[in-house]
Each structure stands twice: as structure tokens, then as C-alpha cells.
Amino acid sequence: MSSGRAWLLIAPTLVILAIVIVYPVIRALVMSFQKDAGLDPATGMFVKGGSAGFSNYTHWILQQCTSASGTLVPCPPGTLGSQFWGAVGNTAFFTVVTVSIEVVIGFAMAVIMGKTFAGRALLRAAILIPWAIPTAVTAKLWYFIFAYDGIANKLLGTNILWTGDAWPARFAVIIADVWKTTPFMALLILAGLQMIPSDVYEAARVDGASAWQRFTKITLPLVKPALMVAILFRTMDALRMYDLPAILTEGNPATRTISILVVEQIRQGFNSAASLSTISFIMIFIVAFILVKFLGANAVATQENQRKGTAS
Amino acid sequence: MASLISKAVLSKAAVLATAATLLTLTACSSDSGSSDAASENADGRGPITYVEGKDTTETGVVRQIIDEWNAANPDEQVTFKEQSNDADQAHDDLVQHLQAEQSDYDVMALDVIWTAEFAAKGWLTPLEGEFALDNAGILPATVESATYNGTQYAAPKNTNGGLLFYRSDLVPTAPATWDELTASCTIAVENNIDCYAGQFASYEGLTVNTSEIINAHGGSFVAEDGKTPTVDSPEARAGLQALVTAFETGVIPAQDTTFKEPESQQAFEDGQALYLRNWPYVYGTASKEGSAVAGKYSVAPLPGVTGVGTSTLGGYNAAISAFSENKATAADFLRFLQGEQAQRIIAEGALPPVLTSLYDDPALIAEMPYLPALKASIENAVPRPVTPFYPAVSKAVQDNTFAAIKGEKSVDQAITDMQAGIESAGSN
């Protein structure tokens, strides 16, 4: 096929991608360099803000707000500007903790599901239920469980304010997120496990490798590509987390993530929200880049070897 | 995992998808400056569209009102555009239409807290001159909620106010002041239940509860210009202090910091609280099956410092779009909305009307026994801060109050931060 015809065939896709992805991205970038409309003290009406330079970005990163006299001051507590680093911290904390727990539990679940036993199909289907429930429903479900007179406090015999106090609220979000997304992790890892040919294990057994050696020398390296993809997906999911903390612990400052901050800022001013979402996009991009570059490259190599190995 | 081959592609796609999700959220056009649209089409007559969030009243209040109007005005028919049930979505829908300066929304129902924002953006027709409304007989606080920078921009349509529900089997007469209320908490202790339940989770309800107690002590949040903060005052400090003291002494139990309307209502209906601050709808639900307090509760205005307290106003105002082509008809429709005929339909739909006289109507009181208490409550009510930066102001109030009632911040510090937060609202 001539390359001209090829371009013609993919042109509709490119146009659609340009409209749904490129245009909004550029639009948001442009907006992030404009000031939000301000109030004209003489008339009490809003007037256009004009160019903002990098002030929308420094507003978040350096936490600078404008005082009534027009000078830059540190953003006072209770303004969204003062909550940027707190939100970044919460997001990073949720990401690291939930993804770590999910890898460990997900791996264990995948190993169990990989074994042959009666009712395996039923277990595999059942385990997917938490993943199949929409996040908003999950969040509301756990909201009732963690209510003051809810099941969690009744079972534990405690009076913990799960959604009101800082650390209990964070743990509530982590527990709900792990419950919800571990099955996804388990399924991706299971797919990786099943790629490993069983004769490799048999050979190892014949050579007298212990169960631990078989796990560290065979399972772990060979499952790594699948594991890396699972970790990458989950990490980026966690970095964007919005609905779970928003519904489970509505408004609690201790569980405010970057995405929640973006949505709250949209209600106050579009242009600062555009810069905030650009900042979070860059942060997520960097994290994804690091994962792909340093961990993913290795994974691709492993997979290449694996394919060559099985082919021969 | 055959898809691993294209892993790099996948991850790139995921990154792009992330970007798209985050960025499209904000890909709306920026604010347009005010135009002269407000003064155009002042004499326009013809069919108009009325926009309001989903009508959840059992009687279908909006349809009834529009049917009555349409029967009387065959040449100037009103069409009802029903929006989503979700207030935030309804707000965004209005913003989109008005930002684009579209003329398809003529009269819009605005939550009281949106009115100043829409007015300051030049999207509403000022109700002065030929559009002026007769406010005689309308509850003054509701008119105040529709007034920004000295000009009335909307017609109060239906209102709402906080009420004090109390266990009439345990408390013979309702406390008139906050001090009386806290003193009577010994009754709660004797009966092994909590004293006071309200909405103190970190959300809009906290702003409502906080402003009620601060207003009751004579404090305020922003000046009439909608911008200058006024919360740093001895009165506001006294109000917040009363709230913090109530938490410290257990008058309000610590779990109330996780309560919104449903949880506080549940606590009262389970017989777990002596007093409940909530909206009038609880009057009906608390006597339904499953309630432990059916027949054992009564209702009173919110307690204040020396007498009746100051309730925070909820409810909706109706405003004429600056881009409407039939403003004369729209203005007539606003007058119709405030007339007795429409207001009675609103009252019968269990929405608190804005027409004072209906609160004394024996037939309505028989149906809704809480009306006299609600009248006392709303006559003394203060609207929430009337400011175009409402979300930011509310945030400053919520976050700092939440820190104060959790004991993470002193009352002095919370008020100082609130003042600074309101000052930087909308300036970034």
C-alpha cells in the first residue's frame, strides 16, 4: 500500500485524536497563563484577568496568594493555594502505600488462583466482584461501614471517627482502595504467571531447587513484565485518585488529593485550575516516565528473552 | 499477556489519557467581561423558558405554577427546562449557557449562594426601574440574599431555614437561648443520650452551622461589597468560641464532626440526641415508621444569645438572564412567582414560601405545624455570605472551623486565618 493511502486511512483517527486530546491540552495550557477574572472594586463586577505569566504556577508551587493591598503573601490556611503540598503529600502517600499492599496481596491471590483445584473458576469470578463495582458505589459502601455507628466500629468495639480524624480517614481510604483494586492487580499478575511454561519448574525441581528458590529465580523474573505493567497502571490510577476520598471522607483535609484540589479549584477559578491540572499532569508524566524508563526497559528485555526462550 | 509487546505504546496511551482526563476538566472558556446585554430587550414579550434543577416535590410545584401561568397568558407561554438533580451540575449548566451569552434561558432558578456570582459576572438583569419588584410582604432576609452590591438581582422564590428539633417528652419547653440549651444537657446525661446533633463534617453544612452561631452572636463574614472580610471581630470570636466550647464540654459529641444531614437526622430519630438542628423536612420523616421518636418531638426556632437565633437561609431565587430576548415577560413571570397563587403552590409542596402572610395561614399550619417556628426562624435569618467568591469564602470558613472544633487550632487563630482566607478569596 502506498504511504499516501495509509495516511488517508489513519487521517480520521488523527483528526479525532487532535480534537479530543490535543485541543483540550493546548487550551488548558493557554488558560493556565491567564489570570482569573477579578472584581472591579468600583462597580462590583468581574473584569477579565489578562495575562498571568507564571503566577498561576507560582501560586501553587510557592503557595503565594495576593493580599487585599495587592502584595504577594503566603496563602493563608483555608485557601486552596495553601493546600497544594498537603494534597501532593496525601496523593504520594496513598500511591506508595496502596500500590505496595496491592502488589503483595495481589501476588498472593494470583498464586492461589493459578493452582488447580475444584471451584477455581468460581473463585476467579468471585474475586473480580470488588473490581466490577463502580468506585462511587464502593466509596459509599465503605462510607457506611466506617460511619460512627457503622459495622467497623461495632466489630472492633471502638469509637473511632473513621471519616473525621486525620489518620483513621487516611487508613479508611487505603483499606477501601486495596479492597477495590487488588483483584485487578491479581488478575494481571495471574496472566503473567500463566505465561511461564510449567516445564521450567519441572526442570528446576529435578535439579533440586527449593520452593523459595523456584519463586525467586523463576517466578519473580519471568512474571516481572506483567507485574511492571500492573504497577504502572495502578500507580497512575492512584495518582489521579478522586472519587474514593471525595465520597468516603468528603471534605476532610487529611485525605485531599490533587484531583480533589483541581475540582475544588474549578469551582473558584478556571485558569488557576488549568495550571494546577497541568502541574499534576507533569508530575504524573514524570512518575510514568521513570517507571517505564528504568523499570520498564528491563521488563521489555526480560520479555524478549522469555519469548526467545520459549520459541527455541 | 500478548499486549505486553505494545507495552510502551500502552503506557504512552495511558499517560495521554491521564492528561486528557485532567485537562478536559478545565477546558472551558474563560470568563467574559460584562456587556451591555443587561439593558437590551427590556420591552421584549413572547414565550420564555424557565430553568430549574429537578423538581423533587411530590406535588410537582414547578409544573403547577407554569400551568397556571400558561392558562392565563396564552401569548407568553413558559416552557420548563428541567436540569439535573445535582446542584453542582445545574450550576455548571447555567454557567455554560450564560458564558456563551445564549438567549435560550430566560428565567433561571439560582441557589441563594450563586446569586452574587452570577450578578457580578453581568449575567443577570438588575431588578430596578421598570423591572423593580414590590418587596412588601416578602421575608426581608430572602430579599437580602438576592441583593448584591446594593442592587436587587433576583426574586426570592422559595426559602429554607434551620429549625431546632427537640424531645418534647424530655424537655418541657424549648430553650430560647444557647445558654439555656447547654444548661439543659443534664437531661441528656440523665437519659444517657447525646445532647445536640448538627452538621459538622467538613462540607457546606459546616459553613451553615458555623455561620448560624457566628451570626447569632452578631458576627458577619463579608461586607456589602461582597469582598471585604469582616469576620475578625469580637462577636465572631464569641460565636466560634461557643461552638468550640460545646465540643469541649460534650454538649456536641465528637462524632458530630463526621455528621451531615442524614447522620444527624438518624441520630435524632434513633432517640440518641436530645436536640437536632436540621431543615424542616425532618418534621415529616421523624414521625414515619422506624423512628424511635414519633410523637415525642417538637420544633422551635434556633436558639440565639438573648432570644431567637439567626438561621442560615437556604432556598432559591429566580433571576432574568441578561441575554433574554423577552425581558418584559420574564419580569412579569417573576412577579407571578412571588404572588400569593404561586407561593401557595410552593407552600403546599412543602417548600417554605417567601411570602410572610402564608406562615400565618391556619390551613397551611394545620398541614405543616412547623410553620410558626420556621417563620420566627426565618424572620431573624441572615443569608450566607453574599459574595461572588462564595466557594472560596465557604472553604475558608469550613476548613478553619473544622480545625478549631477538632482542637487543632485555637479560636483566635481560626478567626485570624478565616479573615486572611476570605481576603485572598478569588485573588490568585
Structure description:
The complex is a heterodimer of chains A (312) and B (428). Chain A is mainly α. Chain A has helices at 3-32, 55-61, 84-114, 120-127, 129-132, 135-145, 151-156, 166-195, 198-206, 211-239, 243-248, 258-266, 270-311, and strands at 38-39, 46-47, 64-66, 72-74. In chain A, the strands form two sheets. A two-stranded antiparallel ribbon of chain A has the order 1-2. In chain A, strands 3-4 form a two-stranded antiparallel ribbon. In chain A, helix 3 packs parallel to helix 8 (166-195). The mean pLDDT of chain A is 89. Chain B has helices spanning 7-24, 61-72, 87-99, 115-120, 140-145, 178-183, 185-190, 204-216, 234-248, 261-269, 282-285, 327-338, 340-348, 362-367, 371-379, 390-405, 411-423; strands at residues 48-52, 78-82, 107-111, 147-148, 151-152, 155-160, 163-167, 194-197, 273-278, 297-300, 314-320. In chain B, the strands form three sheets. A five-stranded mixed β-sheet of chain B has the order 2-1-3-11-6. Chain B has a four-stranded mixed β-sheet with strand order 8-9-7-10. By secondary structure, chain B is an alpha/beta fold. In chain B, helix 8 (204-216) crosses helix 16. Chain B: Residues 29-41 have a biased composition (Low complexity). Chain B: Residues 1-19 form the signal peptide. Chain B: Belongs to the bacterial solute-binding protein 1 family.
